[in-house]
Amino acid sequence: MRAQSGASRLVMVAGTVAALSVVAACGGGEGSPIGNAAGNDNTTAADGSVVLEFSQWWEPELPKGALRGIMDDFEKANPGVKVKLISAPYASTQQQTVAGAASKTLADIVGLDGAWVSDFAKQKAIADLSTLIKDSGYDDSQLASQIKVGGQTYMIPVVNFVYPMFSNDELLSKAGVNAPPATRTEFLEAAKKVTATGNGAYGWVLPLAQDAPNGIQNDVMSWAWASGGSMLKDGKPDVTNAAVTGVVTFVKQLWDAKAIAPGALTMKEQDKVEQFTNGRVGMMIDSLAHINLIRENNPKLKFSISAIPSEDGYTGKRGMPYASWGIGVSDTSPHKAEAFKLVQYLMSKDVNSKLSSVANAFPGNTKSVPDFVKSDAMFKTAFDIWNKGVPANEFTGLPTAEDLMRSFDVQLQETLANNQPIQTSLANVQADWSSKF
Amino acid sequence: MSAPTSAPPISAPVAPTPAAGRRRPPLAKRLAPYGYLAPVAALMLVLMILPIAVVIRYSVFDNVIISPTSVLVGLKNYVTIFADPLFRTATRNTAVFTGVSVLAHLLLGLGFAMLLNSTLLGRRTKTVFRTIFVMPWLLTVAIIAILWRLLLDPNGVVNYGLQSVGLIDGPVAWLSELNLALPAVTLINIWAGYPFFMVSLLAGLQGISSDLYEAAAVDGASWWRRFVHVTLPSLRPIIISMALLDVIWTSQQFPLIWMTTGGGPLDRTEMLSTYTYKLAFSEYQFAQASAGAVIMLVVALVLAVFYVRQQRARD
Amino acid sequence: MTNPTLTPAGSSRPPTPEAHTAPATETTPMRTVESRVPAAPGRRMSARTKRLLLRTGAFIGLFLGACFAGLPILWMVSSSFKDNSEIFAWPPKLITENFSLAAYTSVFSDPVKLRFFANSYIVAISVTVLTLFVAILAAYAFSRYQFRGKAAVNVVIVGIQAVPPITLLIPYFGLIVALRLYNSYQGLILTYMVFTLPYAIVMMTGYFNTLPRELDEAARVDGTSSFGALWRILVPISLPGIVSVAVYTFMIAWNEYLFALTLTRTDNMRTVPIGIQLLMGQHSYEWSEMMAMSVLGSIPVLVLFVFFQKFFIGGMTAGAVKS
Questions:
Q1: How many Å apart are CA C59 and CA A420, to the nearest integer?
Q2: CATH assignment of C102-322, given 1.10.3720.10, 3.90.45.10, 2.40.128.110, 1.10.357.10?
Q3: E strand intervals along A64-145
Q4: Does A249 contact B at CB distance below 8 Å?
Q5: How far apart are CA C61 and CA C66, in angstroms?
Q6: CB-based contact C62 B129, cutoff 8 Å
Q7: Nearest to C159 among B133, B242, B300 (CB)
């Protein structure tokens, strides 16, 4: 009796699963309930003007009302077009964009990160901008860069956040270091000295959290780019080369010297900045956008910025890592022409200057000059570094870029925390990356 | 607001025939339970079974969502998942995380509920402590994660406290130490989840008839015997239901893990939920992620069968 | 757990009115027990000492528990009064020089944030009321009827929660868009009901099961309909259970983030957790404002809980007296 009822329970589970599968099978084509119903009810306003939806995470990052103000100006300049801003938290933007694309509810214009472009383009979520550029007769020579997938442009970087080295002047001088290090050897020495001063101070801070693995791009791979190195060869992964091996060896030296602030393995970019702001770390690689934040939160902190140290003896052009607020147009948007007008507007010389000024970023238009470059010595320095070097971010436009960073991250953690040989780690990364390309 | 699903069944159960006393229950009585279940059934069918069906469908295809053309691949995704060593690690971590969390939730919840139900304390004392004990429950998970990151930071207050009493020598990075990360996230989850057991068990304790305790006291039963023979058996249905549900919820806890450790350091806090998320939104392998979800569903259905059988045994 | 000789509380003997009217509303069962045990004069001293010891033990337990539960919260509240720059100050201080209410005023002066709170209330209250109603009906069917397919329905209701919401996100999103519930209160309310109903049903079934069948059957004999018996007899007695389910339901609806974000697109539909998450920027966090919003979100719920606490104490007694 008991055994029988046990068996019948199992049959029931099987039955339930089977029933679900039947529903699944009858449920029609994938995404069938999704299809045409897309929330397109809002594309025209009561007065007949076109309403463009612009989804981004920028609005909460900017001073209150700044982005809305720019949109109001755009509406004034383009009667008949209205812009509705849809803002979401940065950490969820990517996932929301994927979901939106899958159910065809993507906003007309979408804010993009370079790491997502390739995947969205493949998903046919975002439109090929090359065609729009051609159709509208737009002169794209003033664009600092365009992110291409398969030869076609899919994203235009609107503003760029450059990642130079920040150093805490006080901590460095206390440790007997008088100028920010310019080479890796100097950096290692300086980091060790700062750590040796005690009081919970550390030489460097390295965020390796896996939920936001962009530390690999900004804080690790940037060292390779700064010395002219690359992690790719002919567009294919090449992480076992001397440049990347050198960087990982260097990071491992810092780690073994205990010169990296504790908690690195789950640290995020936001924590990194807190550590620096509170005067606990001597040096960090970080976005220029943080200059004002650091000044605001710790007015007493004396710090300076300089180029990321290079390999000893390197004299070539320095790659300058950056991250962008990019922009793209939804492939399902019924108003692509109007949407591209907004893109053009944001990229125009004056508007782009204005946007970069409020965002503390560098412009995506080569002719734009943000205000702070004229008014602020520190930004001026940074702008010079930027102009002297070459923008470098090899992750932009790669397939599943975030996952590439994550798999590098995991292997780097193996090397740092588990003493896995560097060669093994990089070989693992190489194998994993190769399977993704 | 949700009238379409809940409106019709209301009328159904209101009119059971008064024809009691016949041998076979009248039709209305036999139909009554279905009437009572209709609103739930309608809601679940449309909003839960349907999406799950789509997920099951995804799990046997290739390149779903990301590519317009996907091919039926049968069980290939399941094979891939099972062959992935990270899947096994995630399963192991999830089992530890879930087992310890649920046990601790139960023990803490029961302990606090008993304390708060005891006669040793005055009414006001109880009110104050009940309020304090329930507080962790009031926070949204994002705040729980951020708050504990703040507390457990190498420069945070926990390290400060432990260092000043001399329990640790230097700052400890609780969430990124290889052997401490899993215990640390488990602790956070215990903190966040026990009030929920406590409240339910407290309600259950209130429901135990005092006659039972009186009878036990007359028999001269010790506190422990009363606890084992009266309290526990009376709470048993509640405990079993809560434990089962907690197992299901904890095993798919995502935001807490994601926002504290992201599955790291290395794979030390990788759970089935974070593993599935990375598959879906970082590798864009929605089909494999769906296969992972279906596996979790099947395990839960087996658990549910045990639960239902237990309910049956009680009847 | 496997002792078959002792049956669960109510199922063997119905609570008699006398048993429940006897103690004053705030006396709990165990006090009744002890006061009724005749104590021999010689044992009185030791009983008193024992009680004192027990009391001390209980207070130590309460104190430790309160530290575990309350200290992180205390830190959160303290952080909400700090300046952003002091969050990570070393040594950590509970109250800092720059103690300020700036975070709170900034929340209160932002109509968008206030709207988040209003939305959260609308959604959470609707979800709670609707969930309770639907769950009570379903639990009644599970507890009091035998019917074909009962076990299967039960398995499905309990089991389907195991699908990680994150994997359901995309098909679910499509469904809500197709049903034209995207960016609406209805969409959120129905979604949360799907999440809260399984627990509510399981728990309500559990509570109903602890109540003797004789209770409602007696009412049925008097000619009350099954529906009437449910609402007039079972529901009042089960108030403690219902309140705890209600609190749970409210909390889930109040704190949910993922679907709240996915299923809404404009600020006039968004809820508090999204408001909090919006303060976690790409590059930095608005610590004090996040904490302040969280404190503000918790207070009303806490007040509600304190208010409903009396049901945990008096609910059972009050319900039984009526019968």
A1: 51
A2: 1.10.3720.10
A3: 81-87, 109-112
A4: no
A5: 8
A6: yes
A7: B300
- B290 and B178 inside one domain: yes
pLDDT of the residue at B303: 85
Flag if A270 and C262 touch (Cβ within 8 Å): no
- At A75 the pLDDT is 95
- Map out the domains of chain A as residue ranges: 39-160+324-384, 165-306+400-436
Residues B220 and B282 in one domain: yes
Give which of B235, B136, B139 is closest to B187, Cα–Cα: B136
pLDDT in tens, A204-220: 999 999 988 999 999 99
User: To the nearest whole angstrom, how far is the Cα of C285 from the nearest Cα of chain A?
Assistant: 7
- Residue B67 forms part of a structural domain: no
Closest residue of chain C to A64, computed from CA coordinates:
C110
Smallest Cβ–Cβ distance between B284 and the set A31, A119, A262 belongs to A119
Asked whether residue B7 falls in the same domain as residue B99, the answer is no
Structure tokens at C289: 């404002």
Confidence band (pLDDT; 50, 70, 90) for C4?
very low
**pLDDT score of A158:** 95
Report how far residue B24's alpha carbon sits from residue A219's, in angstroms, rounded to the nearest whole number.
Answer: 77
User: In this predicted structure, what is the pLDDT of residue A254?
Assistant: 96
Would the CB atoms of B236 and C199 count as touching at under 8 Å? Answer: no
Residues 3-42 of A with CB under 8 A from C: 9, 12-13, 15-16, 31, 33-35, 37-39
**CA–CA min distance C2, chain A (Å):** 17
Q: What is the ipTM of this complex?
A: 0.83
Strands A165-168, A281-285: parallel, antiparallel or unpaired by DSSP?
antiparallel
Domain that holds residue B34: 1-59
Q: Is residue B50 less than 8 Å (CB to CB) from chain A?
A: yes
Domain end residue (candidates: B59, B93, B108): B59
Q: Which residues of C fall within a CB distance of 8 Å from A103? A: 170, 173-174, 177
Residue range A39-160+324-384 forms a domain whose CATH class is alpha beta
Averaged pLDDT score across all residues of chain C: 78
Paired with A143 in beta bridges are: A365
Comparing A39-160+324-384 with A165-306+400-436, is the CATH topology the same? yes
Q: Mind listing the pLDDT tens digit for each residue in B231-248? A: 888 888 788 888 988 998
Under-50 pLDDT residues of chain B: 1-22
Q: CB distance B139–C294 less than 8 Å?
A: yes
Q: CB–CB of B40 and C251 under 8 A?
A: no
Instruction: List CB contacts (< 8 A) between B68 and chain A.
Output: 124
Same domain, B129 and B250: yes
- Segment A19-78, tens digit of pLDDT: 544 444 444 333 333 333 334 445 666 677 899 999 999 998 888 889 999 999 999 999
Question: Dihedral sign, CA of B204, B210, B212, B217?
Answer: positive
Does residue B213 belong to any structural domain of this protein?
A: yes
Tell me how close the Cα of A26 comes to any Cα of chain B, in angstroms. 9
- Is residue B25 located within the same domain as residue B84? no
Neighbours of chain B (3+ CB pairs under 8 A): A, C
Sign (positive or negative) of CA dihedral B206, B209, B215, B216:
negative
Per-residue pLDDT tens digits for B176-219: 899 999 999 999 999 999 998 888 888 778 777 777 778 887 88
Backbone angles phi, psi at C116, to 5 degrees: -55, -45
Assigned superfamily of A165-306+400-436: Periplasmic binding protein-like II (3.40.190.10)
Q: What separation in angstroms does the CA of A300 have from each of A169, A288, A294, B2, C189?
A: 11, 18, 10, 57, 49
Exposed, middle or buried by CB within 10 Å (0-12, 13-18, 19+), for A256? exposed
Q: Between A102, A271, A414, which is nearest B65 by CB?
A: A102
Residues B180 and B234 in one domain: yes
